[in-house]
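Quick start: read one record
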Amino acid sequence: MAKNIQAIRGMHDVLPEQSARWQFVEQHIRDVLGVYGYKEIRLPIVERTELFKRSIGEVTDIVEKEMYTFDDRNGDSLTLRPEGTAGCVRACIEHGLLHNQTHRLWYFGQMFRYERPQKGRYRQFVQLGVETYGMADADIDAELIILSHRLWQRLGISGSVELQLNSLGTLEERAGYREQLVDYFSAHSEQLDEDSQRRLLSNPLRILDTKNPEMQALVEAAPKLMEFLGAESKAHFKGLTDRLDALGISYTVNKRLVRGLDYYSKTVFEWVTTELGAQGTICAGGRYDSLIEQLGGKPGHAVGFAMGMERILALLENRQDLGDSQTVDAYMILVGESAQRAGIILAEQIRDSVPGLKLQMHCGAGSFKSQFKKADKSGARYALILAEDEVSNDTISIKFLRTDEEQRTVSSAQLIELLQD
């Protein structure tokens, strides 16, 4: 007997009873993004490996250890996308969307990273990405945060998340800060753990984000990036915080917040929660003006964020009021051959006359008792019963499954009128 083939570790099926929660969140996302005038862009899952080496950086954990990379039959190196921003910028450059234009875009789909699977961190995971182009001022940075705040309110989780902000300044300002940081940590190299020693020359800002409790005092005493920002960067950050203050959106300025990718500048932010253990960041982003030029486009402005769907769903795990979008409204029971033939015609007439009604017709014969059990299990409000007598009299019986109303027998026209109410 052949051995069962199972899903790849860290890549999960979403079963029918789980997908209703996904649909609930996805619909709220679409609604909120539509309110703010954002448009969907659909991007390939596979890109040229060079795209991510150039955007993320070759000396990063993502590129060195986590990407799913392979050679195709032409010998080209391709990669399953580990994140969406680079692909979105590539598409906008390729299709000429960035020259003297502004865009508000979003995409949704699977990303892939070879990491140790744990709750909230999978090898195949789903992200919402929201990207904006052509806008330099802090108002668009603020809009993205305000938009995400509105989404938390819609989902009922605003009390479970906290906003953290920082400014990374310009690339030039950060370069000066980087030198000071390398000098500082080099002078205390004996206190650095293995990860931090590796990052010291490749990405020293990431040392500030260490979770190692033995390094917290060392990191707290490190030079602060805010001290290296120029007037324009400080004004940009104040423009952002002023707008959030005006709307009463609370935040914490986290001077150690640096984000993991080198292309960020000025604004960076994260929405975090304490309810998911180590995987506490549910949404993160910031400004990445330099990435457009880095990928071959003309200098421009860009800011966006990515949201991890599995972590959002984990926050909603204990919610019982999300409903089930897959529950049917009516279940048609067919008893006898003539009812089976007539039922398929009547079912289509009902669907034509009552758009949006979720009607499931029983297939595969079976006794009335077994069909009725399936009707009740479906969650339907009505059982529509068609047997030999109903076919002969051109009627149908309707039983109310969720209320105490008495079963009644009506004509097809009366049934459609009842279902329309």
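The mean pLDDT is 92.
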